[in-house]
């Protein structure tokens, strides 16, 4: 019995090991026989041999493939089978160990548009005399430091070139002279210390992010007559030249540099500037709106991450704030327009800082109702006085005519005042002679006083004191005259009351 059990266990083990060996064997066969897959995407035949650790390509491939995916393998050279393809539109050899020039026979691939050699081991980029049809070339993440000055003359159709993450510190001026269709050039994460001054009449987008660029010259962009955008973010620029010139440039990204000053000349030769990114620089002084006087198309400005000083509270705080935020706003993140120093306005917006300093009595939001109430009071006073004047004109004018002159002369001391102020001025005089507010309003206006002034002076029989009597000091001192006024005034009051009663 025990031997039976042992026997069956053994046979089960045998079966299992045989089956599993068969499976493994079959899997190995599959890998050997079909390491690459073919499929159709967007009507294009793909041959996918990527991520297989290949050192060479297997035989019997579908040579009609239009997209050839050979990325992330161990190729040290271009696999020999490539020569049998002719239809290829895109060749992806990224993530290999290539460091040899592209083979001549690629010249025959007249449909080849995309060549991806990203993440290989290229340290120089030198090309033989053949012409290639390539439009999109990705050479990013290599170790390229030397580029032959004829290198891209062999790719007359080149449209998009990615040279980011290499070790380039300069580019020959003529390197793109024959790449007449070059549109986008990515040079980010290299070792330029200056903006490279190459010629490319067709280039529209230049990316020079994280390149240690410390200098940009007035004519740095002179050879790029179609340039629309340049990204100079994350570099080491401390200043910008006056009159940096580009007639076409629309987007200028200078974020994360160390720039601390703008002048009226900085953007004066960029007439089409529309988007300006100055985030994360070292600006302290709030700009003047005149810095942007030559940029009528400016529509987007980024200012976040600068430590604005609102010291001195110059009027620029308000003017530039309005320039950047009024409709249509140029700064979308309005919260970025905040003061960093001095400490008593930290975190306040430029506008708040300005208003709090120059108009400290006003609330944060300048109250519209306060203004309305003030205007209302003024209008009310004016209307009231007009009505009263009308009433007085209706009532018999003769007795009044002389009285008003006396009163006004005494009150205002001959200094012409607006009517509202004259009402106010009467208040202190109430001690001597208390007219009610209504009475005060009913008093004749200042305007007419001087016409009959000589008559009054004659009455007083003090013609020589006429000038001196124009000061309030004199008036308050001359008690007798006050008495006179009081006696003269009574008829006016009586008369007025009668008029109102009617
Ligand atoms: C591939 O091309 C080479 C040379 O052009 C030729 O000798 C070879 O037979 C071709 N292989 C196939 C499978 O077509
Ligand atoms: C290029 O592609 C077209 C179709 O888009 C095709 O007719 C032509 O044969 C291809 N040329 C080569 C050399 O394969
Ligand atoms: C090239 O390949 C890399 C990695 O596979 C990929 O990230 C990149 O987008 C490709 N470039 C182009 C232009 O398709
Ligand atoms: C400018 O560059 C920075 C950093 O590269 C990026 O985050 C930002 O979006 C760019 N600005 C614009 C307006 O594209
Ligand atoms: C803040 O302090 C400055 C002096 O450093 C002073 O001139 C200014 O009036 C203060 N502003 C406010 C809002 O208190």
TrEMBL record:
It comes from the Eukaryota. The gene is LOC113496653. Residues 457-490 are annotated as: Disordered. Residues 476-490 have a biased composition (Basic and acidic residues). SUPFAM superfamilies: L domain-like. PROSITE patterns: LRR. This is Leucine-rich repeat-containing G-protein coupled receptor 5-like. InterPro entries: Leu-rich_rpt (IPR001611), Leu-rich_rpt_typical-subtyp (IPR003591), LRR_dom_sf (IPR032675), SLRP (IPR050333). The keyword Repeat applies. It comes from Trichoplusia ni (Cabbage looper). The chain crosses the membrane at residues 371-392. Residues 1-21 form the signal peptide. It holds the Pfam family LRR_8. Gene3D superfamilies: Ribonuclease Inhibitor. Keywords: Leucine-rich repeat, Membrane, Repeat, Signal, Transmembrane, Transmembrane helix.
């Amino acid at each position: 019995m025990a031997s039976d059990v042992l026997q069956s266990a053994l046979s089960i083990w045998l079966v299992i090991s045989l089956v599993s060996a068969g499976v493994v064997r079959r899997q190995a066969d599959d890998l050997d026989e079909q390491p690459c897959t073919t499929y159709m995407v967007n009507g294009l035949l793909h041959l996918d041999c990527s991520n297989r650790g290949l050192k060479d390509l297997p035989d019997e491939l579908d040579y009609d493939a239009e997209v050839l995916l050979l990325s992330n393998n161990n190729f040290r050279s271009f696999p020999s089978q490539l020569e049998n393809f002719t239809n290829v539109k895109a060749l992806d050899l990224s993530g290999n160990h290539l460091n040899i020039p592209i083979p001549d026979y690629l010249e025959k691939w007249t449909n080849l548009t995309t060549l991806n050699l990203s993440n290989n081991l290229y340290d120089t980029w030198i090309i033989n005399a053949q012409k290639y049809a390539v439009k999109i070339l990705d050479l990013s993440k290599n170790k390229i430091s030397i580029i032959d000055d004829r290198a891209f003359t062999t790719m007359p159709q080149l449209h998009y070139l990615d040279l980011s993450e290499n070790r380039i510190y300069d580019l020959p001026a003529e390197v793109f002279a024959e790449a007449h269709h070059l549109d986008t050039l990515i040079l980010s994460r290299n070792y330029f210390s200056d903006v490279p001054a190459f010629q490319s009449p067709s280039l529209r987008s230049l990316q020079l992010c994280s390149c240690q660029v410390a200098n940009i010259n007035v004519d740095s962009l002179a050879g790029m007559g179609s340039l629309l955008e340049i990204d100079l973010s994350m570099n080491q620029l401390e200043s910008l030249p006056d009159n940096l010139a580009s007639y076409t440039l629309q987007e200028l990204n200078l974020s994360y540099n160390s720039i601390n000053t703008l002048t009226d000349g900085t953007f004066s030769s960029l007439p089409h500037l529309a988007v300006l990114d100055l985030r994360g620089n070292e600006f302290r002084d709030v700009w003047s709106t005149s810095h942007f006087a030559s940029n009528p198309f400016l529509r987007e400005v980024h200012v976040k991450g600068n430590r604005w000083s609102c010291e001195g509270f110059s009027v620029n705080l308000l003017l530039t704030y309005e320039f950047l935020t009024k409709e249509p706003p140029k700064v979308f993140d309005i919260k970025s327009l905040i003061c960093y120093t001095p400490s008593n306005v930290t975190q306040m917006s430029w506008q708040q800082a300005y208003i709090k300093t120059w108009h400290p009595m006003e609330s944060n939001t300048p109250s519209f109702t306060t203004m309305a109430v003030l205007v209302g009071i003024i209008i009310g006073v004016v209307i009231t006085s007009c009505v009263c004047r009308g009433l007085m004109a209706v009532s018999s004018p003769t007795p009044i005519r002389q009285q008003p002159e006396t009163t006004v002369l005494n009150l205002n001391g001959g200094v012409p005042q607006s009517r509202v102020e004259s009402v106010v001025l009467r208040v202190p005089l109430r001690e001597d002679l208390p007219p009610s507010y209504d009475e005060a309003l009913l008093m004749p206006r200042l305007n007419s006083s001087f016409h009959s002034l000589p008559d009054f002076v004659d009455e007083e029989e003090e013609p020589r004191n006429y000038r001196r009597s124009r000061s309030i000091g004199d008036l308050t001192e001359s008690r007798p005259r006050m008495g006179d006024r009081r006696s003269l005034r009574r008829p006016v009051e009586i008369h007025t009351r009668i008029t109102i009663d009617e």
